[in-house]
Specification:
This protein is mainly alpha-helical. It folds into two domains: about 230 residues, Rossmann fold, CATH 3.40.50.620; about 90 residues, Tyrosyl-Transfer RNA Synthetase, CATH 1.10.240.10. The protein contains 14 helices and seven strands. A hairpin with a 2-residue loop joins strand 5 and strand 6. Keywords: Aminoacyl-tRNA synthetase, ATP-binding, Cytoplasm, Ligase, Nucleotide-binding, Protein biosynthesis.
């Protein structure tokens, strides 16, 4: 091998209802990436127990993410769709990476600080160490690219740090087994087993905010269901939520500059732009000077047009759990085969007897 084979990996946690922010920020990108890339898309159910150990319906949540993938246009035959816990090699490599990573690296993760809050001593070890598992998710397939949002960039940097430390610590073992690739990190030549993973940031990612507070991200955990548009919402519910979305009394501006200090207006314009594959400038060229009483109905029509086919297909798939389970089972078998190839070589590199 003289270069790493390009491969895209990403995953979504099965926690609560998927919403418009998940679709525009992640899943729609996954669909676009599959056109020109080899892709692996994972329902990361092992991650879901780091913040909440006991779930009422984890199987249903796993199936709903898989259904959203397929309903949105991901092809599970050409690419791989599976749930993480079906591939034990993720957890095996995560343990090795726990031994590669340093405690100081984990303590710097801002997401751990945010999620653990003031009661850090009572947070689970899994919550502290889950960036190692995230690194393993990516590197057990030796993936080269990961689509990421702003909140995951730090974890991807940690993945690169873990890969680099492993590559440097075991460089002679990697070279002796002939399974590495010559790369340059900075100015240092390295014979690497794991690739330096690159983020995929395809244009400005839409940052979808709460419909009730334009300063907060749209979230599954928000206690108000009116704050988000769920992918399983019907047309009537979508219309109701957009009509009730918080706005201000002024007309829409004609220039993007006019959206500054108007977070709710900026959010709704951004949603319209993302759903219509247009820029905010183009949306304001059409609606600038108009009141929200004109803009909201147009946004309702667009949201229903884009989301209703996905919702219908998700509902159909969720009513046929045997079909969803077959997709995940097939994906799990194909993912395990790839992951085990990596782990056999990793065990050899480290020196474990097999």
């Amino acid at each position: 091998m003289n270069e790493f084979k390009p491969l895209v990996f990403s995953g979504v946690q099965p926690t609560g209802n998927l919403h418009l922010g998940n679709y525009l920020g992640a899943i729609r990108k996954f669909v676009a990436l599959q056109e020109n890339n080899d892709c692996i898309y994972c329902v990361v159910d092992l991650h879901s127990i780091t913040a909440q150990l006991v779930h009422e319906d984890l199987p249903g949540q796993i199936r709903s993410i898989a259904a959203a993938f397929v309903a949105s246009g991901i092809d599970p035959e050409k690419h791989i769709v599976f749930n993480q816990s079906a591939v034990p090699q993720h957890a095996e490599l995560a343990w090795i990476f726990n031994c590669v990573a340093r405690i100081g690296w984990m303590n710097r993760m801002t997401q751990f600080k945010d999620k653990a809050g003031k009661d850090r001593e009572n947070a689970s070890l899994g919550l502290l160490a889950y960036p190692s598992l995230m690194a393993a998710d990516i590197l057990v397939y030796r993936a080269t690219h990961v689509p990421v949002g702003d909140d995951q960039k730090q974890h991807l940097e940690l993945t690169r740090d873990i890969a680099q430390k492993f590559n440097i610590d075991f460089m002679e073992h990697i070279r002796a087994r002939g399974c590495g690739v010559d790369i340059v990190v900075g100015e240092e030549p390295i014979h690497a087993y794991f690739p330096p993973v690159e983020p995929l940031i395809g244009g400005p990612a839409p940052r979808v905010m709460s419909l009730r507070d334009g300063t907060k991200k749209m979230s599954k955990s928000d206690p108000s269901d009116l704050s988000r548009i769920n992918l399983m919402d019907d047309a009537e519910t979508i219309a109701k939520k957009i009509r009730k979305a918080k706005t201000d009394p002024d007309a829409l501006p004609s220039e993007v500059e006019g959206l500054k200090s108007r977070p709710e207006a900026e959010n709704l314009v951004g949603i319209y732009a993302a759903l219509s594959d247009r820029t905010k400038e183009e949306v304001l060229a059409e609606f600038g000077g108009q009141q929200f009483s004109v803009f909201k109905p147009a946004l309702i029509d667009l949201a229903v047009e884009v989301l209703s086919p996905i919702t219908r297909e998700m509902r159909r798939l969720m009513d046929d759990t045997a079909h969803i389970d077959a997709i995940l089972r097939s994906g799990g078998e194909r993912a395990r085969a790839r992951a085990e190839r990596t782990m056999r070589e990793v065990r050899e590199i480290i020196g474990f007897l097999q």
